[in-house]
Amino acid sequence: MLSVRNLQVRYGRSVAALHGVDIDVPADGVLAVLGSNGAGKSTLLRAVSGTLRLHRGSVVAGSVEFDGRRIDRADPAAIVRLGVVGVPEGRQVFARMTVEENLRAGGIGARDATRRAAARARVHELFPVLAERAKQRAGLLSGGEQQMLAIGRALMSGPRLLLLDEPSLGLAPKVVARIGEIIREIHAQGTAVVLVEQNAVMALRVAEHAAVLEVGRVALRGTAAELAASDDVQRLYLGGHAESWSEAHWRHGGRTLARWER
Amino acid sequence: MNTFLQLVVNGLGKGAVFALLALGFVVIFKATEVVNFAHGSLVLFGGYLVVVTRESLGWVGASLVGILSAALLALAVERLLLARARSADANSLALLTIGLDVIITEEVVRRLGVTLPFLGEAWDAQPIQIGGITLFRTHLVALAVSAVLITAFFLAFRYSDWGVAMRAQAENREAAALMGIRSSRVTATAWLVAGALAGVAVLFIATQDFSGAGLSRGTHSIALAAFPAAILGGLDSTAGAVVGGLVVGLAEALSAQYISFDFSKSAVFLVMLVVLALRPSGLFGTRESTRV
C-alpha cells in the first residue's frame, strides 16, 4: 500500500535527516517505526504526508508511493484526498476551536457528505468523550483527550492509511495503554497504520511489523514479535543515549518499564 | 447632550467603515501572518476604478466594479507576489507590501492629478434632523451596510467550511495541512475578502459627509486609521477588529469636537497606545489557554 524507496531528506541546504530509507506498509497492516530522538522518525512521516516543506525540508532522492502512485512531490491536501492522513507529534489540536469544530476541520478533506457522516459516527463510537465535550474548547481537554481528538480528527476524512507520530508522548501509562487499544481497533476496522513511537513496548504490542530507525537509516526490521524478542532492539534503545533514557524515565513518572530491564 | 449624541452616532458611522478595513486587515494577518501595509492602496485603487467607470455605469455599477477590482487586486498581490515567496519570513513580506503600497498609491495619485473627485452617493446627501441632533446620512448608511457585511462575515467565519478552514489554518498551519485543508485556497480567499471590504469602505470614505475630501492621498491616510483599529483590537481577533474600528471612530469624532480637529488624528493613536500599555496583546488578542 505504502512503499518508501531509498528516501533521502534534507532540511535547509545541509542538514541530512534521512539517508536512503526503505519502508513498506502492506494494506491493512500496522507498521511500528521505532528509534530515539533525532533518528528521523518524524521526518519520515512528514515526507509521506507532504508537510516537509513547512519545515523547510525536501526530498532529495528516492520515492514515496501510495497504491502505486508517486506522492513525494504532491501537496498535503492532495495526499489527504488519496486517503493518507497524519496525526502530528504533540497532538496539535486547534486549541481555540471547539471539539466539534476540530472534527469538522478534519472532515474538510472528504467532500462526500455521507462519508463525512459515517466517519463522524465512527469517531463518536471510538471516542464517546468527544461527543460529550463537543462544545468545549479543545485547549481545555486533558492530554489524553486531546490525543483522542487528534486521532478522531484525522479519522474524519475516512483515511485508508493513518500516520501517527508519537501518540503516547507525555501521557500517563494507563492512557498510553488505552491509545494502544484504540489503534488496534482502528486497524481492525480496516485502516492501515504507521505508528512512530519511542514507547517500544506499546508500539510492538500493537504492530505486526516494525522497523528501527537510527540516525536516518533503517537499522533493523522484522515482525513485531521478532523485534520484541531481539537483544538488538533493547541495545539500540538504550544505545548509550543517556538523554533519551532520562527523558523516557521522566515521561513515565520514574517507573522503569520492561524494556529497560536487561 | 445633543452634541454628544450626534457625535456618538456619527463616530460610530465612521468607526463602522474603519471596522471593515480593520477586519480585512486582520483576516489577511490570520491567514498568512503577513501585516498588509498595502491595505490603504487597495482602498485607493477601488476608489479610482469607481471614478473611472462612474460616468458610463452609474453609481451602483461603478461601485460594484470598484469593489470587485479592489478584491481582484488583493488576490493578484497574493497569488503573484506573496504565494511565490511562501518560504520568506513574514517580516520581509510585510516590507514587500510597503513597497507595493507606495507604487499603487503614487500611481493612482498621479492619474488623479489635480482632480479630487468625490465618489458621490446614491442616497440623498441632506443631513437628517431628529430632535435637536443632526445626523449624516452617509454615516447611517455606512453603519447599516457595515452591520450587514460584518454579520455575514461572522456567520460565515463561524459556521461555514470556509470559516472552519480559515480558523484552523490561522491556528496551526501544519495541522490544517495534515487535515487536507488547502492552504493556498484559504489564503487567496482571505485576500479576496479583505480587498472587497476595502472596496466597500472607500465608497464611504471619499464622500463629502465622511471626510469632506474627494479621492486623493488624503483617502489613503484616512484609511490608515484601520491599523490602530486592528492593533488595539488585538491584530489576530476578528471581533477585536470590529470593536477597534468603532473605538477609533468614536475617539476621532469626540476628540475633534472636544479638543481640536487637528488633535483627532493623534488621539486615535494615543488611544491605541493606552490600550497596548494596559493590555499588550490588544483588547481581544490571543492569550494562550492550552493545557499540555
TrEMBL record, chain A:
Keywords for this protein: Amino-acid transport, ATP-binding, Nucleotide-binding, Transport
Domain of life: Bacteria
Sequence ranges assigned to domain ABC transporter in this UniProt record: 2-240
InterPro entries assigned: AAA+_ATPase, ABC_transporter-like_ATP-bd, ABC_transporter-like_CS, BCAA_Transport_ATP-bd_LivF, P-loop_NTPase
GO molecular function terms listed in the Swiss-Prot or TrEMBL record: ATP binding; ATP hydrolysis activity; branched-chain amino acid transmembrane transporter activity
Example of a GO biological process term: L-amino acid transport
Pfam families from the UniProt entry: ABC_tran
CDD domains noted in UniProt: ABC_TM1139_LivF_branched (cd03224)
Family per record: Belongs to the ABC transporter superfamily.
Protein name (Swiss-Prot/TrEMBL): Branched-chain amino acid transport system ATP-binding protein
UniProt source species: Actinokineospora iranica
TrEMBL record, chain B:
InterPro entries, sorted: ABC_transp_permease (IPR001851), BCAA_transport_permease (IPR052157)
Transmembrane regions: 12-29, 34-51, 57-77, 140-159, 188-210, 222-247, 267-286
Top-rank lineage group of the source organism: Bacteria
Membrane topology: Multi-pass membrane protein
Keywords: Amino-acid transport, Cell membrane, Membrane, Transmembrane, Transmembrane helix, Transport
GO biological process: amino acid transport
Subcellular location: Cell membrane
Any GO CC annotation of this UniProt entry: plasma membrane
Any GO molecular function: transmembrane transporter activity
One family name in Pfam for this protein: BPD_transp_2
Family label: Belongs to the binding-protein-dependent transport system permease family. LivHM subfamily.
Descriptive protein name: Branched-chain amino acid transport system permease protein
Species of provenance: Actinokineospora iranica
